[in-house]
């Protein structure tokens, strides 16, 4: 089931996106901790696959993530929880289903931190 733009704002399955942190520092202890947290979240191939699937859908994705991955439902749930704790995805439980979507500001922040790590301008 997809919960996408056809639903009204009051029925959207994902909470509103968070504010961008694009002006936050890209160097220093806080930035290093933030990069480590985000990198750990995408440090597993299944989590990378989940992020890719959510990016491809460009909408809130509910149950079909399990159908797309060669993993048990409980394993997918654990990976989703890790991505959500890191702030890379957002979602909510709506009755028997959980819906997830990408958190664009967090993905942009991860990119910004990695670019800074590589020595280029973000």
Description:
With 122 residues, this protein is of the alpha+beta class. It has a single domain, classed as Winged helix-like DNA-binding domain superfamily/Winged helix DNA-binding domain (Arc Repressor Mutant, subunit A). 48% of the residues lie in helices and 13% in strands. The chain has a two-stranded antiparallel ribbon. α1 packs across α5. The longest helix has 14 residues. The radius of gyration is 15 Å and the shape is globular. The N and C termini lie far apart (36 Å).
Sum this structure up briefly.
The chain is an alpha+beta fold. Helix content is 48%, strand content 13%. The protein has helices spanning 29-41, 45-57, 64-68, 73-85, 104-117; strands spanning 2-3, 60-61, 89-94, 97-102.
Task: Quote the beta fraction.
Answer: 5-15%
- The shape is globular
| Tally of helical runs | 5
Oligomeric assembly:
single chain
Instruction: Look at the structure and give the mean pLDDT.
Output: 80
What is the CATH third-level topology name? Arc Repressor Mutant, subunit A
CATH superfamily: Winged helix-like DNA-binding domain superfamily/Winged helix DNA-binding domain
Order of SSEs? EHHEHHEEH
Beta-strand segment tally: 4
Q: Judging by the overall fold, what is the CATH architecture?
A: Orthogonal Bundle
The percentage helix is 40-55%
Structural class: alpha+beta
Radius of gyration: 15 Å
* CATH class group: Mainly Alpha
Indicate how many domains the architecture comprises: 1
In whole angstroms, the N-to-C terminal distance is: 36 Å
Strand order of the largest sheet: 1-2
Major sheet details = 2 strands, antiparallel
